[in-house]
Amino acid sequence: MTPESAWPVPYLPDPHQFAADAFVSFCVSVLLAVMINAEAQAFAATMLGDQRPKTRERFHFNAFLHLDILGTICFLAGGFGWCRRVDIDASKFSHPRLFTFLTRLAGPVANILLANIAASIIFLMKIIEYDPRVFIMVVGVNITMAIYNLLPIPPLVAGTLITVIIPERLPKIKLYFSQAGPFIIIALVLIERITHKAIFSQYLNPIVIDVFNFIKAF
């Protein structure tokens, strides 16, 4: 059985069919995906004007410090998640709403770039006839994380877009929407896993699979 058929994309940890190698590869891939996502947001914020005297507060490349509790739970329950919220000061941006969105968008863009790098390594490893299964998982997890940012719920990117569009005269709505977002996502994921009825995955998973096959084909 090939790694592709053994590990479906998106990969969902299943305690009833536990495979140690797949789960370890998944955990490593999640750490890489979270780290590159967060660091890309920090880089974009800095380039767009939110510069900090202490750069190590955001640029430390420690994946564990970028883990978000609810985001990690979502990875384990739904195969996707998010990193710990990267602190940005929108008042330092010349165009606060636009640059806030672009900063958050930098995360999934970086995930797609990392998936492409991993796909290139897969190509080289196949030439030397070495099993590239870990890098296949890296491709799958990063693409899944990027595509699921299309969900219009914060802290995902599409949700951030809605948040920045909410007028400033409605700060409570913006705050409540941002705070409730992670819990709404986890609730929807758990409903899907428990009832086995697709709510949003039926729309996003085909995109994940198509992008995965497209990138890995090169």
Your description of this structure?
The chain is an all-alpha fold and 218 residues long. The protein has helices at 3-6, 20-47, 69-78, 96-127, 133-147, 157-165, 171-195, 201-216. Helix 2 (20-47) crosses helix 5 (133-147) and helix 4 packs antiparallel against helix 6. It contains eight helices and no strands.
Average pLDDT for all residues: 91
Could you spell the SSE succession in H and E letters? HHHHHHHH
Q: What is the strand tally? A: 0
The general outline is globular
Can you summarize the main beta sheet? none
Taking Cα atoms only, what radius of gyration do you get, to the nearest Å? 18 Å
Comma- or semicolon-separated keywords:
mainly alpha, 218 residues
Topology readout:
Layout: H1 3-6, H2 20-47, H3 69-78, H4 96-127, H5 133-147, H6 157-165, H7 171-195, H8 201-216
Question: Summarize this, please?
Answer:
The protein is mainly alpha-helical and 218 residues long.
